[in-house]
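hey so u asked for the seq, here:
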Amino acid sequence: MYMYGNNIYNQSYLLLIPAILLTLYAQARVKGAYAKYAQIGNTRRITGAQAADIIIRRNGLGIGIQEVAGTLTDNYNPQTRILSLSQGVYSSYSVAAIAIAAHECGHACQHAQGYALLRLRNNLVPVLNITSNLSWPVMILGLLMGSGGNLIFNIGLAMFMLVVIFHLITLPVELDASRRALDMLQEYGIVNGQTEEIAGAREVLSAAALTYLAALAMAVGNLLRILAMRGNNRR
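ran it, structure tokens below
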């Protein structure tokens, strides 16, 4: 019985293979696109910080900009209303830098306009900080208890479903921020839409979007794995 259960547990990892392959592909795309367009400057010689400042002023956002350590650590914090740009973005004239800065400004615009999916995602974060770490231990405990642990398992499953929902919401939020970024880069004259710049910005943001798709695929793969384990545990 132990050997059978252990075999099912190991085989369940096969469900993650497509998500793992997509994750590896997405990471390679991001690294490749960033490395390429971090070396190509925009013709107007606008830095990431300057691009962000233009977008902030044009939209009347009234938020702060700061430089933070690390690579691709860029983010917008709606609580502090601070736009943080990494060292490779803040003072860089590259196409990659202005694309990333504009994307984070896209999130700031979403926040200012009360974009529903962003609000929903932000509201889920405090809950996920607790449930995401507890879901697996609770589900495993339920499985170990056999049929008597169904309620406990289902509680853990509900916790994990919040993780899947979070990633499901995150994907359109990120795609919308990238769409806004590309529109603002062209509308505000930060890039020349007739040159390689806008195509490069689109490539950088499209590659980044793949990472969110991969995260969703991994969450769904794990969900299928959990359901397969539960189904075999009931036999």
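Helices lie at 2-11, 17-37, 48-59, 87-90, 95-112, 116-144, 150-187, 196-233. The chain has eight helices and three strands.
lmk if thats what u needed
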